[in-house]
Amino acid sequence: MALIVKKFGGSSVANAERVFNVANRIIDDYKKGNDVIVVVSAQGDTTDDLIEKALEINPKGTASKREMDMLLSAGEQISIALLAIAIETLGCPVKSLLGWQAGFQTDSHHSIARIKRVDTERLKNEISKKNIVIVAGFQGLNKYDDITTLGRGGSDTSAVAIAAAMKADLCQIYTDVDGVYSADPRKVPTAKKMNEISYDEMLELATLGAQVLNNRSVEMAKKYNVELEVLSSLEVKPGTIVKEIVKMEKTLIKGVAKDNNVARISIVGLEDTPGIAFKIFNKLAQYKVNVDIILQSVGRKGTKDITFTVPKDQKPQAVEAIESIKDSLNFEDISVDETISKVSIVGAGMESNPGVASKMFEALSDAGINIQMISTSEIKISVLIDAKQADKAVTAVHDAFLG
Amino acid sequence: MALIVKKFGGSSVANAERVFNVANRIIDDYKKGNDVIVVVSAQGDTTDDLIEKALEINPKGTASKREMDMLLSAGEQISIALLAIAIETLGCPVKSLLGWQAGFQTDSHHSIARIKRVDTERLKNEISKKNIVIVAGFQGLNKYDDITTLGRGGSDTSAVAIAAAMKADLCQIYTDVDGVYSADPRKVPTAKKMNEISYDEMLELATLGAQVLNNRSVEMAKKYNVELEVLSSLEVKPGTIVKEIVKMEKTLIKGVAKDNNVARISIVGLEDTPGIAFKIFNKLAQYKVNVDIILQSVGRKGTKDITFTVPKDQKPQAVEAIESIKDSLNFEDISVDETISKVSIVGAGMESNPGVASKMFEALSDAGINIQMISTSEIKISVLIDAKQADKAVTAVHDAFLG
Hints:
Two copies of one chain form a homodimer. With 403 residues, chain A is of the alpha/beta class. Among the domains of chain A are: 3-175, Carbamate kinase, CATH 3.40.1160; 263-337, Alpha-Beta Plaits. Chain A is 35% helix and 26% strand. Chain A has twelve helices and 20 strands. An eight-stranded mixed β-sheet of chain A has the order 3-6-2-1-9-11-12-10, sandwiched between helices. A four-stranded antiparallel β-sheet of chain A has the order 13-18-20-19, sandwiched between helices. The radius of gyration of chain A is 24 Å and the shape is globular. Chains A and B meet through helix 1, helix 2 and helix 3 of A and helix 1, helix 2, helix 3 and strand 3 of B.
């Protein structure tokens, strides 16, 4: 007997048939004698429909975040009630709980609230009565008793937070894929499903565009040592376990990921004086731009060039930030390229094995792919290439390491 | 400067245009320097849509009332957020509050909960900050922190409860009619709008089928002496004030109402022994049947007949109740008639003026309408007639007293 937290996304409960499918998955585990807490998102398009209603009233999208949270949190309220009704109808005891009823206390940053704590009294009480508990994901309550939402990936985070607070044995995240793969299985036929992966490797893969799990939830799982399982909401079979894995000496490439959400910005012909880099990246930070890869090179006639990448949607702020210090910077030109992709390999033990990088570059070279920028960390190597060659690059690198 | 509570029904906020219409009505009063608290129902068909979703999952309609309350209360959550967004967009400070945030504490009878108290701390706090407050009608919280709903007419009751708890100067109930009329204005061209009416008269009119205000809310308004105004949500003009009016000696017929929701049940040929009436009506009470008019008459050969009326939808229980004591009752026959209407006149001071009844009967007689049963109270006289003649009867009686 174990305490299992299960999280189902909005598409898993989009209609009555799928609600029953999810209800049966829950009841299977409950009938084996487990305590089960379920976190659900809003049904299918509910959130989009509610946003549309708000835009009809406020087309500029300037509605206050407090009222948007009030509006959107109704979506999960509907889905938890419907799932509870399905479980009742199938004959099992169940209680649905809103975020605040389940004890979610957050800070007051409406629409992107952080969980401060989960007060587990009510959850424990319902579990002790042998109720299956259905909790509204994505939502909580701030200290003023106002409803908050957790922002993107919030329901995954809700599930991990409950698993941590309740010291659950396992937190299962149901998705439309059946686990974490060594590359995107729709693009790379030889991609393999992993049985296990470490938190750090999962974090790198998520950051790099393999959007299976939200990063925030993996970070929380790592912090509280919550064992995660990523598995299919459609098929009944084991998924991929994400947990703390003791690092081995041997390099173990876990996966290849691609990220098209990259813009490269180059500042060309900068005067070569001290403090230039600080001036640039300090200003970018003020404009809340997330800089990823940075490269500095020697330019013509004693000048230097600085190139960096940002998520595509932050390009305008990045350019604005640079323009704002144009006079004090003294550079020749600024150029932007959005037709690039970042392709990365992830795996523990990479830093002690320089052969990995050269093997990756060789695979790309053999495939005729030009590398524009390179970035490395303890457990990943990323290259920036032409976006048109990204899928070819992923396959080449995957086959070299994992094929 | 006054504190005004305003209540808008679901059709008043059914789409973005109507939401803005309501928002402007609210802002008009706010800009005159008033404190304004608004109670809103779920938008248009939202509640029906949510019930439909539940029936897709549980077609028998046996979903628990707790989960149905969880589901349905999302409807008002959506409408308060949208109305608040409209008011924000028009530039006024506003906060939407769910039932529990506005302090509604109820008993635990899910779907028909009674309000136990309204804890006004949050409401007072928001009002003191000069916020317009938008409260979700129809909902509250029980002592287990579970969401409850108040049942039919719940939003009217929510509005009156807030007005009572906050000692508001006025509670305005916006409807699709512009006030309370002396008869149904769609049927009786000479019907007049009343400027004022007493709680008791309003209660009798509501009971009798003039469905302008929910009875429960009028009863609460009377108990806490909350001045009500029934007015149009479409046109800006004064409505009808419902308040305590000192009874005058002079008979003042206030209105004529019709109720088609009546079934007449006759038990014929009852043995004339003591306790028969008690046996019948005690059993009906056990079956939760609301008996309205009762008539006992002498039948043939030393037997007696007992006839009574019930709401049409309670006819099956009523018949079942009587059948269950058939053996101990010893009667000849039971007959049911559903083709009848109750037509009533309502007005204070009636009991001290016997001429009123005869004037009513004369008007009906002149119109060729046969009276089947008669019932009187301090402030009303009701007659039971053939349903086909009901509209004719209302016009005849109305013209005699108010034409």
